[in-house]
Amino acid sequence: MLPDNDSLALFVKAAECGSLTKAAEVSHMSLGAASRRIALLEHKFKTILFERTSKGIHLTPAGAALVHYAKDLLVDLNKMQSEMSAFEAGNKGVLRVLASTSSMAQCLPEDLALFSKAHPDYKLIVHEAWSNEIIQSILAAEADVGIIMKGAFTAGLEVFDYRTDHLAALFRSDHPLAHKDNFSFSDVLDYDLIGLEGSANLMKLLTMEATNLGKTMKLRVEVRSFEAVLKMVQSGLGVGLLPKDVGLSKAANGDVVCRPLPEPWAVRQMLICTRQGQSKNLALTNFLSTLLGGIPKVD
């Protein structure tokens, strides 16, 4: 028989606190009860999980191995409980959606609201991720549907055109290119840049286009979010590169200027993807119908 959830949660908390006493307090149980639970775990796995010292407890190699699995198991159990509670609350099902940063910052929230309004009996679980991470999760059946940027490797996926966005440069208002006529991406490459982390599809595209121009991107700072890009631009650390709609919203206060890149490749295609051969339940079918609005599948 597998160990109970409460004992595993106590074990993880003790490992994090380095103290069984503190873990017992947080778990609202006596120290004696906590000690018995850990002893039962050690008996179950026939190994010592903690080394006891006068300064507290420390994981043994066996304990370090177990804590990794225990955390994953507790997260999965929490997700399971969340999904089951959706049915208890009267929902017809749960749809797990992974979305790229660009889509989350632009059109997707409104489309998700539209779906939820039309289908209030379905619960949406939405997480933000890079396109490559989304593809891996869809292929592993860890999510039902993903919104990615075109350009990623999509073998094994059923793919549909969704929306487009237009890349732009974000300048501080006193930057030389902020008001220059006929500027280009080549001009932008002469200055320090603020970009997203290298795993972002956006940065891979920009790096490729810079290479085509025979230039190198002068990435001064790499950040995780578009909000961080804005902060760096406002501080004068460089030129930001981000979708136009996001940039225009950030430029609303007047201290920065957003200018769409004039090159054709700066217009990007967003895609909706599901796993090839995946059985489409009613929730997924309605979701695709709402977001695609009759748009045909990509060949």
Short description:
This protein has 299 residues and is α/β, with parallel strands linked by helices.
Cα-based radius of gyration, to the nearest Å: 25 Å
Fill in the CATH topology of the largest domain: D-Maltodextrin-Binding Protein, domain 2
Proportion in helices = 40-55%
CATH class of the largest domain: Alpha Beta
- CATH-level-4 superfamily name of the largest domain: Periplasmic binding protein-like II
CATH architecture classification name of the largest domain: 3-Layer(aba) Sandwich
Q: Report the portion of residues in β strands.
A: 15-25%
Mean pLDDT: 86
How many domains make up the coordinates?
A: 3
Which sequence of SSEs, written as H and E, runs from N to C? HHHEEHEHHEHEEHEHEHEHEEH
Low-confidence stretches: 294-299
Largest β-sheet summary? 9 strands, mixed
The end-to-end distance, rounded to whole angstroms, is 49 Å
Query: Got a strand count?
Result: 11
Structure explained in plain terms:
The chain is an alpha/beta fold and 299 residues long. It folds into 3 domains: 5-88, Winged helix-like DNA-binding domain superfamily/Winged helix DNA-binding domain (Arc Repressor Mutant, subunit A, Orthogonal Bundle), CATH 1.10.10; 93-162 and 270-292, 3-Layer(aba) Sandwich (D-Maltodextrin-Binding Protein, domain 2), CATH 3.40.190.10; 164-268, 3-Layer(aba) Sandwich (D-Maltodextrin-Binding Protein, domain 2), CATH 3.40.190. The protein has helices spanning 5-17, 20-26, 31-45, 61-88, 101-105, 108-118, 131-139, 185-188, 201-212, 226-234, 244-250, 282-292, and strands at residues 50-53, 56-59, 93-99, 122-128, 145-149, 157-172, 193-196, 219-223, 239-243, 256-260, 267-275. The two termini are 49 Å apart.
